[in-house]
Amino acid sequence: MLPSIEQLNQSYNNSSTTVKKVVEDTLATINSKDTEINSYTEVFNTEALSQAEKLDAKLARGEKLGLLEGIPISVKDAILIEGHKATASSRMLEDYTATYDATVIKKLKEAGAIFLGKTNLDEFAMGASTENSAFGATRNPADTNRVPGGSSGGSAASVAGDMALISIGSDTGGSIRQPASLTGIVGLKPTYGRVSRFGLIAMASSLDQIGPFAHRVIDTAHILQTIEGRDEMDATSAQLETSQLLDIESIRQANVKGMRVGIPKEYFIDGIDADVRKAIDEVIEVYKTLGVEFVEVSLPHTEYAVPTYYIIMPAEVSTNLARFDGIRYGLSELQNSQDLQEVYRASRAKGFGNEPLRRIMLGTYVLSSGYYSSYYGKAKQVQDMIRKDFTNVFAEVDAIITPTSPHTAFNIGEKVNDPVSMYLEDIFTVATNLAGIPGISVPTLSNSGLPIGFQLMTNHFEEQKLLTLAQAIDNIRYDKFNN
Q1: Superfamily of domain 5-252
Q2: pLDDT value, residue 400
Q3: Are 168 and 210 in contact (CB under 8 A)?
Q4: Whether 11 is catalytic
Q5: I need a surface site. Which of 189, 280, 313, 322 has the fewest CB within 10 A?
Q6: Contact (Cβ atoms closer than 8 angstroms) between residue 469 and residue 283
């Protein structure tokens, strides 16, 4: 396992290692492992090494590196980096090169992070296994016969396989937390609006949120502190109040005594794998020894979260992907045709895979005349009810604990031809996006078999509580497996 951000920064500044060596070693790991894992769609070898040499020159002058300077990061290929391909793992954008940086990339560049490359994903972030990529499936480093989850599976696999210290992904219905759980790392989805979405290729704009993957909870806190904040290029981004800013030292201390955590009965249901339930029960018992109080709570509209999500999300997908028509954006077929509809059909048929086409059709249907109020309108009403459920529960507790996924990583090919089964992979994560609240997946304390993650959720902009609770278990896990 690669060191934490703080450990690596200390190693740079006390001359225990060089930035170039760390980058060379990580690139060598990518070269040796990724032919099988397929986590990267593009690796920035020359650029990463050039930046490493510049930072080593800074150290040679006797200057110290800032916390994120020289930190090797991978980026989901739905987030724009100027001068590099941004394909969203789709043939539709196979030849598109970004002309500007996403806001999160700009902030990380300013902090001195080193970008190693772009990572694979389900096409346009549509999937839960990273099998829907036009560039081949990504495999789970824990067991290469199994999926890493999705849609940010390439990002998760790059961190889990020590091919990046940090990765930046996006989460629309669980696309950071679910792959984090299945690969055994930490994945954080911030409150909607805490991080700018400018420069993220949109899937469902009211649900998408950018967030980090890491081995350690404290590392996700450092990354969030760097990328969060109001952005004039994103009208949905929030101006954070002083009380909403992170206190890293307090998170590190992880004093959780007296905190109240809800156990929602709707999430602990038949169908959860016995080993998942056992691992989470163990985490709950450890929390109790740290002074955390647990109470049973109810989120009564949870059962409607998945169907609600799969009405709202495809509706926004059909709108966002309408721009890829072979004329304005994306792959263009039959360029000399005089029939505009023929160009649309040919370009979209070749450019989009089956899952985007399926969701575009679903979304267009629920937004069509005569069906809008029956489907989309009703779904928005249920979304409000789901939000109110969380508001009511958070009036009584500091956080909620649930499984991240009802099971461990499944086999490649097992569900790829069963869309409904694949959609149910989001059963424990979509409500968080519908409510706009933050969530994090943290590996459990079990080290037998395949990775298992548990999920914590808090109220809007209460990432301080979220990360403090997560860090408490992370400290114990780190001590358990590294001593």
Answers
A1: Amidase signature (AS) domain (3.90.1300.10)
A2: 98
A3: yes
A4: no
A5: 322
A6: no
Do 465 and 452 meet the contact criterion of CB atoms below 8 Å apart?
Answer: no
Residue holding tokens 């990273």? 130
Among residues 152, 175, 196, 318, the one annotated as catalytic is 175
**Residue 374 annotated as catalytic:** no
Token reading at 259? 């905190």
Sign of the Cα torsion 403, 405, 406, 409 reads negative
DSSP reduced 3-state for 293: strand
Summarised one tens digit per residue, pLDDT across range 247-303 is 999 999 999 999 999 999 999 988 899 999 999 999 999 999 999 999 999 999 999
Distance of CA 252 to the CA centre of its chain: 22
Strand segments, DSSP code E, in 282-408 are: 293-297, 399-403
Residue type (1 letter), 182: L
For 94, residues 6+ apart whose C-beta sits below 8 A from its C-beta are 85, 87, 134, 331
- Annotated catalytic residue, options 74, 129, 151, 347: 151
Tokens representing 454 are 């548990």
**118 labelled catalytic:** no
Q: Rounded to an integer, what distance in angstroms lies between the CA atom of residue 240 and that of residue 229?
A: 6
pLDDT at 478: 85
Beta-bridge mates of residue 457: 400, 439
3-state secondary structure of 261: strand
* Catalytic-role residue among 20, 33, 76, 189: 76
317-330 pLDDT, tens digit each: 999 999 998 888 88
**Cβ distance 18 to 56 under 8 Å?**
yes
